[in-house]
Write a structure and sequence with these properties.
Ten copies of one chain form a homodecamer. Chain A contains two helices and six strands, in the order E-E-E-E-H-H-E-E. Chain A has a single domain, classed as GTP cyclohydrolase I, C-terminal domain/NADPH-dependent 7-cyano-7-deazaguanine reductase, N-terminal domain (GTP Cyclohydrolase I, domain 2, 2-Layer Sandwich). Chain A is α+β, with helices and mostly antiparallel strands. In chain A, the strands form two sheets. A four-stranded antiparallel β-sheet of chain A has the order 2-3-5-6, covered by helices on one side. A two-stranded antiparallel sheet of chain A has the order 1-4. In chain A, strand 5 (97-107) and strand 6 form a beta hairpin. Chain A has helices spanning 61-69, 78-93; strands at 14-16, 23-36, 43-53, 57-59, 97-107, 110-119. The interface between A and F is medium-sized, with 18 and 18 residues.
């Protein structure tokens, strides 16, 4: 059953922002993220949080879930995968402001959180 | 017994602000909100928080409770229903400042919080 | 959209117990139960927990979820609804042992938990 | 034994601020506040927090406790009673800055917090 | 508004046990109990928990709430009031088994819990 | 990188029990278990706990970790996978007593815990 | 102001047990116990819990508080002081059953709990 | 053993700040502070927190501990003792910035926190 | 400074049990245990809890602390080190009953608790 | 096995920052830090947190772990060791901004947190 395809930003779907002019934040918490360590091949686990002020569109939740599932058998470092998530999110959703946080479970007794912020050019 | 009428802002009642000139915040936490997912028809559950600085009037709590109950059999997306609550609240209460937060329980392992702010034109 | 049908034990589906001879407990926690107070018509909210040792069959989770959803617009007292859940569960699943706990949110500052146990005649 | 007298600001006693020129905050947390709902006559319960920067005087704690006890059999809405506490406190203590928070336990599944701030004219 | 009448077991109402033969526990948690210290006249606060296996009848919740409210202006020691609650409960409800716990907030830095059990003669 | 082989009990390694005659319990908590739902193909997540009194041998932790990782792309129901873990564990470790608990994260608002106990024939 | 007298069991006062025949437990939690380490002279801090089924009498709380305060400047090891508390309690209160727990805060990174049980000869 | 001497700022020892030019905060949390109420003679208990940016010197921890112990049998009000701690600390340590928080356990159901800030003249 | 000597049971000191005939439990919690993994040389960390009913003697706390510190640079598996602690404790203290729990922090996402019980022959 | 070499900043390895121009924070939490008190020789324990915005390079986690392990048998005061960590980190990683927090477990009932901030010259 392991035929997850490679994740691709084309999987992310959007819908029109119902109130584009309002001060309006959407926070989406995904505690079931898993990918593979590119060095050891062992699974990594973490929680990915998206917090954004939408521009013209909002992310569609089910497409986000399916997109994140595809990282399951992908090898990627914490910093790289969190930046990849930001690149894909910005390309598709073009939010006015967005913060993405990757909180990864301990490895060797050490836990790591990566926080990336992006703001649209005005 | 399922004869809840459609929610309508005319149900919301108010009473005069006892100290209109003061810096004064009222926070109302409603952890028993439920509506229906318009796609699947399955129930959604969440906590709605209203935090506002009243203008001339304050919201009457019992009318707010009855108004929120009427969403029980209404189909609405998270973003839409939270914005609807803001529109109705602002229309009836005309607060100097208001923040409404909808925190919805996990679906597909993903939980969502929608935060909307509004400030009266000065 | 309020056309939830009346709950009926015929909705509950089962599948064969994979290890009937083993000491084996299944706990199912359903924190999104809601029904109506038969006196006031106001919604009640609670968590229903099923903890059972299966006999020949196990409960199928999706059918349990759909069955519980149908109480949404049904008026019933705490004690009555928890006993009703037990009657239906025993009739369909015939577990060797079962405990059902209904934990209801506060009303008038008072919260109520109803715990029912049942053991099959040997 | 129910002969609590009506609360009155004359009950509040003060003592001189030991360091009037310093940046100095006193927080007093009173989790055992109770009064009556003026509509239903049922008891309300809450925590009252006073957080202030004293001017010339500080509030004497025992007198504050006795003053608060006298609300026991008084009927008053949340907003009204919190504003009354502020009026009395400011009249007697004349603090440079004060914040009073009334956090009331759930009624009908809804809990309410009232936060009032006051700053002395400079 | 302080005209609470004296508490009396005649206020407690019951309804028939829906399943007298079943192993069936009802737990009722009342965190808003208050009475007066008979020595000092100061208010006491506590949580009263009733946990019982009904015999022929169950306690009606609203009548229990109103009965407990009447202790508001009654002077009574912790041990005495918890035993009084047991006496009244047993006289009216005649449960097969009952446990009543009074958990009182700290006085002089010391907190007290009183637990009483009663079982019907067989 | 998705070439996880199928899990097989031959992967589980053991080492001799250092004190076979003692009353001695080993608890191993594995919060990073994931497999696939055989119906939907979506990932499931859970914590697997092994609690056992060793007989002649103890489980080697690293081999247990690698064995559990191989369920990553395997489709299996909660009850089936937990029983499978028990079968493999008993076959290889032959403990005097063992309890295995699978605690799975919510799906459709419902979370499930499966607890299996096994005792060696004396 | 350091003139605390030596603690003595004669300070402990009692009152008659209101229901001597009942199954009845009183738990008294005293989190503000302090004495001195007899080796170093440094203060020790702990919580003393008394849990007992009264015989003919109950302990009077205020006298217990004053008795415990007198250990403030007394040097005593954990085991000795907890046993001393038991000896004095049994001598004065003669409970049917009693458990005393001394939970002391960490010293050198190590915390200690001493639990003593006593049952009256039948 | 009750021969604690009176506290005096001369007991506080310091050592040179290892990096005087850096933005550098030291937080010291002392949860075992006790003194006496000057009115009643009963013990008070609290946690004292020092949070400071050192100037030329840092406080030596053992001397701070011994200094705080000497308040054990001293009678002092909350506001007075916290201000006294600030005066002594500033006189000896001369920090660039310091905040001292005294958090005292409940008396009569009311708990009190005193927060004092001080900044060196530039 | 790394000259910790090898741990040896001769370091453990005792003192006479003050009440040999009483039902009396001493629990000692040591959250700062560290040793080395014999395979990788990496440090392991855990909490060691001793819970025992003393026979003729009690363990002296400071000698226990120094004894435990000496494991700092010793390589030992979880099961081996916990059994070693039991052997040494029983040899020196000869308790009537003892339970030792080693709770070790996660390695590779897996945490382990080892619980050993011992009872003196009667 | 106690042959840990002295810690040296040359052990710290880096890798290129994947997005040097972005607002990007990495937080690394290391709860298993231990060193020795230079006065007493007893072990100290703490959690070290690094929170930084990378410049041209990021810290490699495994090298950080091995570097921190080498403090195991080094004697150093809290303030000195936290400043040493900052010096080494800045020398090797040259972050745009960095905050290092050392949170040390209680000694003599007092716990200490050292927070150091550093910002690169612009």
């Amino acid at each position: 059953m392991s035929d997850f395809e490679a994740p691709d930003q084309s999987q992310l779907e959007t819908f029109p922002n119902p109130r584009p002019g309002r001060d309006f934040t959407i926070e989406i918490i995904c505690p079931e993220f898993t990918s593979l360590c590119p060095k050891t091949g062992h699974p990594d686990f973490g929680t990915i949080t998206f917090r954004y002020i939408p521009g013209d569109v909002c992310i569609e939740l089910k497409s986000l879930k399916l997109y994140l599932q595809r990282f399951r058998n992908v090898g990627s470092f914490y910093e790289a995968v969190t930046n990849r998530l930001m690149d894909d999110f910005v390309a598709v959703v073009a939010p006015r402001k967005v913060e993405i946080i990757g909180s990864f479970t301990p490895r060797g007794g050490i836990s790591t959180n990566v926080t990336i912020k992006h703001e649209a050019a005005q």
